[in-house]
Design brief:
With about 230 residues, this protein is an alpha/beta fold. The protein has a single domain, classed as Vaccinia Virus protein VP39 (Rossmann fold), CATH 3.40.50. It is built from six helices and nine strands, in the order H-H-E-E-H-E-H-E-H-E-E-H-E-E-E. A seven-stranded mixed sheet has the order 5-4-3-6-7-8-9. Helix 4 links the parallel strand 3 and strand 4. Helix 1 runs antiparallel to helix 2. The C terminus is likely disordered. It binds S-adenosyl-L-homocysteine (SAH). S-adenosyl-L-homocysteine (SAH) binds next to strand 2, helix 4 and strand 4.
Length: about 230
C-alpha cells in the first residue's frame, strides 16, 4: 500500500522555507493552495514539494517552486489580468496563475504534455479558468493579444519579437534568455511604445523549441520511472 503522505503539510513547509525573496502575499497564498503533487508524474509525487525542478518526460521539467513564484511576483499580477504563459509543461504554473485570479492563456508545443497538462488542471479543479492551445508559443497568441503579462517557461536565444509586440501598454514580459548554461531572467516592460529591459537573476531553463533548425529537437518518449532524462 502507498504510505499516507500529508501533502498539505509539505506544501505549507514549501511556502515557509523555499520562497527566499518572494514576499508578495497574493503569490504566497496561491502557492499555498495549488496541489503541486497533482502536476508531477505519479512516481515522483512524494517529491513534488522539494526545492528543485522535476522531470515530466519528453526532456522537459516542472520548474522549481521558487522560480515559479519568482516569475509571477516579477510580473506584478493583479486579479483579472490577462496573462499568456509560453510552455504549459505540467500545467502547474498556469494553475498558480489561475489561483491568483488571472485570466490565463497557455501554449504548449509537445502534444503529449499538452494532454497531460489538461488532465492535471482538470484534477486540480483549474481547467475552467485556463485556456489552452497546442502550438509554437514563440508566436504568442495573436487572437487574444494584448496581454497584461507574458511568462515564458523555456529559454530562447533572444527575446521573441512577437511576444514583445503582444504586450499591452504597461505590460510585463518575464523571459529567460540565452543559449547554454548562462541564461538570465529578463523583465521587459512596455512603456510609451518603448521596451525597458531589466536583468533579474541568472537561471537555467530548458531551451525554447521551434520548427527551425537552430533549436534542438525534443527528446521523444515518456519518462520512465527507472531511467528518465540525465
Ligand atoms: N510552466 C511549466 C514548466 C514547463 S518547462 C510548468 O509549470 O510545469 C517548459 C515547457 O515549454 C515544456 O513543456 C516545453 O515543451 C515547452 N515549450 C518549449 N518550446 C515551446 C514553444 N516554442 N512553444 C510552446 N511551448 C514550448
Amino acid at each position: 500500500m502507498e504510505p499516507y503522505r500529508d501533502y498539505d503539510r509539505l506544501r505549507a513547509m514549501m511556502v515557509r522555507d523555499q520562497m527566499r525573496d518572494v514576499t508578495d502575499p497574493a503569490v504566497l497564498a496561491a502557492m499555498a493552495r495549488v496541489p503541486r503533487h497533482l502536476f508531477v508524474p505519479p512516481h515522483l509525487e512524494a517529491r513534488a514539494y522539494e526545492d528543485r525542478p522535476l522531470e515530466i518526460g519528453w526532456g522537459q521539467t516542472i520548474s522549481q517552486p521558487y522560480i515559479v513564484a519568482y516569475m509571477i511576483q516579477a510580473a506584478r499580477l493583479r486579479p483579472g489580468d490577462k496573462v499568456l504563459e509560453v510552455g504549459t509543461g505540467s500545467g502547474y504554473q498556469a494553475a498558480v496563475l489561475a489561483e491568483m485570479g488571472c485570466r490565463v492563456f497557455t501554449v504548449e508545443i509537445i502534444p503529449e504534455l499538452f494532454e497531460t497538462a489538461a488532465r492535471n488542471l482538470e484534477r486540480a479543479g483549474c481547467l475552467d479558468r485556463v485556456r489552452m492551445k497546442l502550438g509554437d508559443g514563440r508566436k504568442g497568441w495573436p487572437e487574444e493579444a494584448p496581454f497584461d503579462a507574458i511568462l515564458v517557461a523555456a529559454a530562447p536565444e533572444e527575446v521573441p519579437p512577437a511576444l514583445e509586440g503582444q504586450l499591452a501598454p504597461g505590460g510585463r514580459l518575464v523571459v529567460p534568455v540565452g543559449g547554454g548554461p548562462s541564461q538570465v531572467l529578463l523583465l521587459v516592460e512596455r512603456e510609451d511604445g518603448e521596451f525597458r529591459r531589466t536583468r533579474l537573476l541568472p537561471v537555467r531553463f530548458v531551451p525554447l523549441l521551434g520548427e527551425d533548425s537552430s533549436s534542438p529537437p525534443f527528446r521523444s518518449g515518456p519518462l520512465s520511472p527507472s531511467g528518465g532524462s540525465p
